[in-house]
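User: What would this chain look like folded?
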Amino acid sequence: MHPSDTAPLTETDMEWLEHASCDEKVVAIGEIGLDYHWEEPEPEVQKKWFRRQIELAKKVNLPIIYHSREAAKDTMDMILETHAADCGGVIHCYSYAKEMAKEYVDMGFYIGVGGVITFKNGRRLKETVEAIPLSRIVLETDCPYLSPEPNRGKRNDSTNLIYVAREIAGIKGISEQEVIEETEKNARKLYRLDGKNRR
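Assistant: Here's the prediction, encoded as C-alpha cells.
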C-alpha cells in the first residue's frame, strides 16, 4: 500500500495482501515506503506499515518498489534495520542526491528514472544518472504523473519513455537503443521475468 493510504490499514488487510501477493501475476510488493510531503498519515503510522510490508515481501520472496518522498534518512534507516535489501527492489522515481543513489546501488537496488530527468529543474537526477551505472537503472512513468518534456503537464504513460531514454542516452553518451535494451534487461532482472528465482 502506498504510504498515503496506510492510515486505515489493519492486520486483516495485511492477510489479504499476503494472499493476493501469492498470485503468479504479482511480481513485486509496492509501491511502499514513506511520504512526509503531507501531514497525514503521521510518520509513525507510515513506518509501522512500511515495516510490515517489508516483512511481507520477505515472506513471499518478492522485490519491493520503494516510495520515498522527503523521507530520505528514515527510508534508508528502515531498509537497513529490516535487511530489506535481501528482497531486492527499485527506489521509485528517485529524487535524492547521487551519493545516496550510490549507496542504494551498492546494496543491490535499482534506481527508477522517469520524466523528471527531462525537466530544467531535474539537475540532481541528471547528476545521479551520470554517477551510477546504466546496469542499475530502470525506466518509469509514475503514470499518470510526471510526464517528461515535451508532454509535461499532460497525462503520462509508457509511450513517453522514449523521452526519458533519450535524456539518459545524452547524459551517458550512448545510443537511445542501448538505453532501451539495457533498461529492459534490468527490469526483467528486477521483476524476475526470466523465470529464474521466481517463488
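The longest helix spans residues 43-60. If you want, I can go into more detail on any region.
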